[in-house]
Amino acid sequence: MKNNTKKIIGAIIPFAIIEICLIAILITIISFKLITIEEMPTLFFVFMVIYLLVPIICLIVSLTMRIKEINSGEEDEAKKY
Questions:
Q1: Confidence grade of residue 16 (pLDDT, cut at 50, 70, 90)
Q2: In a domain, 40, yes or no
Q3: Can you give the pLDDT at residue 61?
Q4: What is the count of structural domains for the chain?
Q5: Looking at the predicted structure, is the pLDDT value of residue 23 above 60?
Q6: Structural domain boundaries, residue 57
Q7: Highest mean predicted confidence (pLDDT) among 3-12, 49-58, 66-75
Q8: Residue 30: which pLDDT band, with cuts at 50, 70 and 90?
Q9: Contact 70, 7 (CB under 8 A)
Q10: DSSP characters for 37-51?
Q11: What is the pLDDT at residue 80?
């Protein structure tokens, strides 16, 4: 394995763990809204979905930026100084 591959895997593993947790919470909230007899207020539901979608999107953006940084060799260039 190349050094870059290990760094990319090291970036993906924590990302995947956090994303799985956030998506599981999101699915739980959506299923609660669809399954339960008691009505969840719509505004609260929308707020909770947005509250969980924002970190998911931000994590995806930061992971792609980190992978681009690793592939471009910026980290290796900084080690020279």
A1: very high
A2: yes
A3: 94
A4: 1
A5: yes
A6: 3-20+27-73
A7: 49-58
A8: confident
A9: yes
A10: SSPPPHHHHHHHHHH
A11: 65
User: Does residue 81 lie in a domain region?
Assistant: no
**Encoding tokens for residue 44?**
């609260």
User: What is the amino acid identity at position 1?
Assistant: M
- The owner of tokens 């394995």 is 1
For residue 64, tell me if it sits in a domain. yes
In a domain, 80, yes or no: no
In sign, the C-alpha dihedral spanning 61, 2, 78, 14 is positive
Spell out the alpha helix ranges (H) of the chain.
3-35, 42-72, 74-79
Structure tokens, 31:
């299923």
Residues in contact with 75: Cβ distance below 8 Å, sequence separation at least 6, in sequence order: 7, 69
| Residue whose pair of structure tokens reads 């929308």 in the numeric block | 46
pTM score above 0.85: no
CA 45 and chain centroid, separation: 20
